[in-house]
Amino acid sequence: MIVVLKPGVNNERQSQLIDWLKDLGLGVHISEGAFQTVLGLIGDTSKVDTDLIASLDIVDTVKRVTETFKCANRKFHPEDTVVEVGNVKIGGGNFCCIAGPCSVESEEQIVGIAKAVKAAGANMLRGGAFKPRTSPYDFQGLKAEGIELLKLARKETGLPIVTEIMNAADLDLFEDVDVLQVGARNTQNFDLLKVLGQTKKPILLKRGLAGTLKELLMSAEYIMANGNENVILCERGIRSYSDYLRNTLDLSAVPMLHELSHLPVVVDPSHATGMARMVPPMAVAAAAAGCDGLIIEVHNDPQHALCDGAQSIKPEDFAKLYKKVAAVREAVK
Q: DSSP letters along 241-268, please?
C-alpha cells in the first residue's frame, strides 16, 4: 500500500502519521520527491482501513500495491534512485561505464588495463577475484590476492572497484571493495542476498541465467528489505533458443525495468554475447535503449586471458566503443 501526502505537510504531522502506521505493525518506506512525499507501507496491510487514512487532511491518495516487490517498486519510489560510488553516480540521468578484465591475473595486467580504460572514459574498474566456473578445472581466480591487486589498481587510477562475491563467509575480504557484484548464478542465493542487505555497500545484481524480470526484482527486494537500498540491476543475457551466441541480450528489459522500478539498470553485453565482435553493437544498442550504464570486459591480451578471452575487447577497441556510446546517448536525449 502507498500513501501519497499532500504538498506542504509539516514534519510534525508527517511524523505523527508515520508513528501511527508503525504502531499498526507496518514498516514505512519514505520517499521524498521534489513535489510529493510517498509512504510505502510494508507488511500485512489487509486489515488497514484505507478509507480512514484517505480521510486525513494531510493525505492526497491511498493505493494498494498488488506486486510482490515493494521496496524496488516505482510506485513506492516514483523518482529514480541514484546510487553513489565515491564521486560516481549511477541512475537519474547519470551514466556509468564499468570496464576491466573478467579475472584479475597479475599486478601488471590489472593496473595496465585500469589505466587504459580510465583514459578512454570508464568510471569504474571491474575484475573477478573469485570466479564461478562451470568446470572445476578452470581458473577459479586469485581470491584474496586478486582483491589486493584490485585495490592497488584503484590506488594507481582512482577508479572505484567492482568485483563478485560468491559466499557470505568471505564478506570480510570485501570490506574495502566499492561495489559488490552478485553474479547470475547467485541471483537467487537468498541467504547471501540477506547478508548483503545488512551492508550499506552498493550491490550490482545480475539477472539469473533464465530469470524473469519479476524474479530479478524479488532478488533486489531481498537486499532492500534487509536495509540496503543501494542496488543496481544488471541485464546480462538469458538462456534462449539462440544457437550462435552465448546468451540472448534482452534489451527490452531496460525500459521495462525502468517502468517497474526506480533502481538504475546497467547492461553487460560481454557475457550476453560471448563474442568480442558482438560487444560494440550491443553496447550501442543498450545505450539507445536507455540503460544507466554498461559493464564491459576489456583485456590487453584476450587470446591468452585466463578467463573469457573470447568476449573481451582490447583497450583500443574500448576507447572507440566509448565514443560511439557517448554519441548515441547524445542523439537519444
A: S-SSSSSB--TTHHHHHHHHBSS-EEE-
